[in-house]
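Hi W.,

Here's what went into the run:
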Amino acid sequence: MKEQNTVVLGVIGADAHIVGNRILDYALTDNGFKVVNLGIFNSQEDYINSAIETSASAILVSSLYGQGELDCQGFRDKCMEAGLGDILLYAGGNLVIGKQDWPDVEKRFTTEMGFDRAYPPGTSAKTLIHDLIQDLKLS
Amino acid sequence: MDINEEVKRVKNKRWDEDYFMQLRQPTLAQWPTGKEVDLQEAVEYHKSMPAHKNMVNVLEQGIAGKRTLVQPRAGVALIDEHIGILKCLQNDGDADILPTTIDAYSRTQRYAEAQKGIETSQKKGRSMLNGVPLVNHGVKETRRIVEAVDRPLVVRTGTSDARLLAEVTLAAGYTDFLGGGIDYNVPYTKNIPLELTLFAWQYVDRLVAWYHEQGVCFNREQYGALSGTLLPPGIVAAVSVLEGLLAAEQGVKYYGMGYPQGGNLIQDVAAMHVMPQICKEYMDRFGYNDVTVTTVFHEWMGAFPPDEAQADGVIGYGAAAAALSGATQLISKTTHEAIGIPTKEANAAGVRTVKQVIKMIGEQRYPETNEVKFEMGIIRREAKAIIDRVLEMGDGDVAQGIIRGFAAGILDIPFSPSINNANKALPVRDNDGMLRWMDAGNLPLDKDMLEFNREKVALRAAFEGRDPNYEMTVDDVFAVNRGSLIGRPGMEE
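Here's what came out:
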């Protein structure tokens, strides 16, 4: 049984960028979400284990250092193996190295890599919260 | 010798040569390329290098010429592509100093993943890494970079343990190495003990000192930008001085104090003037009489506006602040900063932008007005309060003082991901845009200093008609990205 408003939040791979993570934690908490904040340096397993422990309904992956494309490979498959096949999986930040065409990058993460949503740099906490409420069918 | 035992006993005492040489064995064994390091060959190579490729020489020329030197950032997975970028920065940008940014996997010693990153980059025809894995590439390949350019090269890493990286790159011909025991632990790691990082950076400092003993001079640039987010200069100065003392103890003779642009010109000028003064005071006190201290101005380290023209404005302002404050070096940014890693063209353009500003300013300097002197006094008072308490807590030992200081929150770097950080101190801008403490946490500021900060913040709160709280700080985090310096309420995204 999922806890609809529990979300796992963290920065993936070898990325030490924490500021956005702290601000998202604050904004999500302020809007009624229960945030399980993993901080930085997380493997895919770290998110999945936390999601299982807390019956979270969403995994929010932040990546700011450009190597997110490598770090997120196979994430959806790992979720399925762990029995979290239908967990909401979002990625956001500076997901690739350099200026690339956003629609291409979005397609790579959603269609090819199985993320439900991907966000470009500069996405506001408001947008994230709006989409979560919609996708999780919260009121 | 058990390195773990040595780490636990870390103290601020110069390593003698035998001890250092013993530690080199397990260090060089961390990755196969360690076998390529030959200190004697490296010394000969450095002595044969032309002067214009040595960082210390170029720094001294910049100081004599009263001109802020410009260094961009850059790094991709493969050597040939990296050389292409550096040539562009040198020839199209006219950068004074060239960087090599190390990738994030290497920074966490994940050399196997870095290796995969190299292979994937080769397959895909584009860099999948955000820097160059120089440990993986090794001394011979790294030297190709040195041979291809005509400027001094700086290793730009953000790693808790740079021992092997320093061995490989310094042997290859790099003449400047960035980092320190505090600045590459607290803002850059999650759960690495401070002892380990302090020890690992003593190694780097001792290696640099070893080369100096052979007549080969390198610079040690300290990464003072820390978490790059709204840092009041007092804590920046304190960390920089403490790391300087550790470096000087090991025998480092050329030390660059890093500083992140705050955005209020008076405060930034004050910081650039007073930081080396405070550093020299403490160096003299401890008997390090022959250390050359310079300054490194990191232009805006926070979120950038996505619009490139607005980004250019940010870059120009940072250049003006660096030149007007007499900074020795400026680390430049680009108009692509909002998306992350720039193209080499955008990177070279950023260098041209800042050099234009620096050259036009020439020898003009912001004068030490009463306001600048006042802010210098604030920074000095705050920095000394922190440094002196750290020395007290360490019973005179800087290393132990740092460890105990962080545990007690006497040292507290806002927006740090490390478990070593108290995260109680919270910064915010005052009504003039200067960086102050909304909450000083456990920082050892006296009653007057706390009241000073409180009053400054209260003035802004009254002006904005809201209470000082976390939202004010968050607004400040986003302000520059949204077109301003101070995060006034109601600024839209």
